[in-house]
Specification:
single chain, alpha/beta, Rossmann fold, five-stranded parallel sheet
Length: 119
């Protein structure tokens, strides 16, 4: 797990901190972003191994749509953080590898992250 970089793009401060604390406890490097613009800045700083994306952000879908163009050769897996179940079409996107329905538990978060990063 050490060395894996996870980008958390989530507007809720408490949720970001909860995710960060639990992933860092397992040895992940975690960076945070609070908006689409901030998320794009973080992506410019380096390619993450995994993105946790709050799809309820005002521009969450725009950010999700921008990802394939940035990482066409090797898509970055994305776990969506959603307030209501996402539609099937959204879950079939190549980069979307899972979703967490708010409110979600820490065990569900860790299970999905470990599944995707082979931890």
């Amino acid at each position: 797990m050490a060395g894996h970089y996870v980008l958390v793009i989530e507007h809720n401060w408490h949720l970001r901190k909860l995710i960060r604390a639990n992933l860092e406890a397992l040895g992940f490097e975690v960076r945070e972003a609070v908006s689409e613009r901030h998320g794009l800045q973080r992506l410019d700083e380096g390619r993450p191994d995994l993105i946790l994306l709050d799809l309820d952000l005002p521009s969450g879908m725009d950010l999700l749509s921008a990802l394939p163009g940035r990482y066409a050769a090797e898509p970055v897996p994305v776990i969506l953080i959603v307030g209501e179940p996402p539609n099937r079409h959204l879950l079939q996107r190549a980069e979307v590898r899972g979703h967490l329905l708010k409110p979600f538990g820490v065990p569900g978060l860790l299970e999905q992250v470990e599944r995707l990063l082979g931890a």
